[in-house]
Amino acid sequence: MTHHVILGAGPAGVIAAETIRKHAPTDHITLVGDEPEPPYSRMAIPYLLIGHIDEAGTYLRKTADHYERLRIERVQGQAIAVDASARTVRLDGERTLTYDRLLIATGSRPVRPPVPGIDLPGVHHCWTLADARAIMERARPGARVLQLGAGFIGCIIMEALQQRGVTLTIVEMGDRMVPRMMGPAAGGMIRDWCQAKGVSVHTSTRLEAIEPGAPLIARLSNGHALEADLVIIAAGVKPAIDFLEDSGIRCLQGVLTDEHMQTNVAGVFAAGDCAEAFDKVSGTTIVSAIQPNAAEQARVAAHNMVGRRAELRGVTQINVLDTLGLISTSFGNWQGVPGGDRVEQVDIEHRKVLSLCFDGEVMIGCNTVGWTDHVGALRGLVEGRIRLGKWKRELMREPTQFMAAYLDAAQGHAHWSAATDRYRR
């Protein structure tokens, strides 16, 4: 009987375990998670903070006996080493698991910046259910909250905190909000929007120290010293793969995989936020920490783990963000490529930004702020790598015509693809 060990009990780990069980009814499956709660979604934590759900509402599967019914053995522990030659995983507490197939789905860990005072009481990440409990205890209406980081995750946390009625200050090292998702005009507009909504935002600013006391004192690089009842660290995440050092499993930013989600070691696979997979838009391998990618990578890995050949079509680079009611999106390579064309339209009065990037006749990425209609067409143009022909020049002149370009150019692309398929047959 084949033993599948899955490291990580987030969405990727759970979907992989369920997929393996579906196609291998008699195999042994062990799901390893490092937290005491049932497997849950971190993306649901903001809804817990707002009060829209309780802790059980964050659980990935709602029936208490779900894993037992599927005969998925759950083990609480943290992987500290993998011996690929011996096919073993060592967990904390001196427990060792032997596997036939291994899936690394350990996800991400929050970045812990080297700030004096970061370990003080009242300073928390917002990553686990334990973090959420501590935050809810301090983030009462009127509480002074300082948050370090205004990236994608930071903005989601900010939304939840504002709805709790706190007095909120955001500190961001970058010159704009969501700097890894948005260009200067878009990120600057989101910053201005947040300030208009009553959030104090310090960009191009570092948190230099946190001093103890009640309240805490946060010292900023711009000379401000702010009192805070709670400090939240949302300074980004990185793949949780430190335990793979000296394992022989190849890692770059994440665990490097092929199109089958297999690593350089036979029988060892990776999926989710810790996996580095090929992105067809950029032509490189990337770590893309969004749940749709985690789910698809888990499904592909699981199929291959049970001998059912499957391939990953590519990594999706999409981000859709609601920041206090202002919608923004980022698709593909929004920063553009050397020598590529770029067009940007900024409408300050209506709080809108539309930025398109091209490589030749192909749109390779875009940013939007304030656009809610037809943004799926932008994603289709980017992910479909559709040759725009005459529409390239039209979009450079008037980028708001992207829907018409998609309907016309994509239809021609579909006819060409169908004709090519018939020729191949």
3D structure, described in words:
The protein is α/β, with parallel strands linked by helices. 27% of the residues lie in helices and 28% in strands. The protein folds into 3 domains: 3-110 and 238-305, FAD/NAD(P)-binding domain; 123-235, FAD/NAD(P)-binding domain; 325-424, FAD/NAD-linked reductase, C-terminal dimerisation domain (Enolase-like, domain 1). The protein has helices spanning 11-23, 45-50, 66-69, 129-138, 152-163, 184-196, 291-305, 375-384, 390-397, 402-424, and strands spanning 3-7, 28-33, 72-76, 79-83, 88-91, 96-98, 101-104, 108-110, 123-125, 144-148, 167-171, 200-202, 207-211, 216-220, 225-228, 230-233, 237-239, 255-256, 268-270, 275-279, 284-286, 318-323, 326-332, 342-347, 352-359, 362-369. The strands form 7 sheets. Strands 3-2-1-7-19 form a 5-stranded parallel beta sheet. A hairpin with a 4-residue loop joins strand 20 and strand 21. Helix 1 packs parallel to helix 7 (291-305) and helix 8 runs parallel beside helix 10. 41% of the residues are buried.
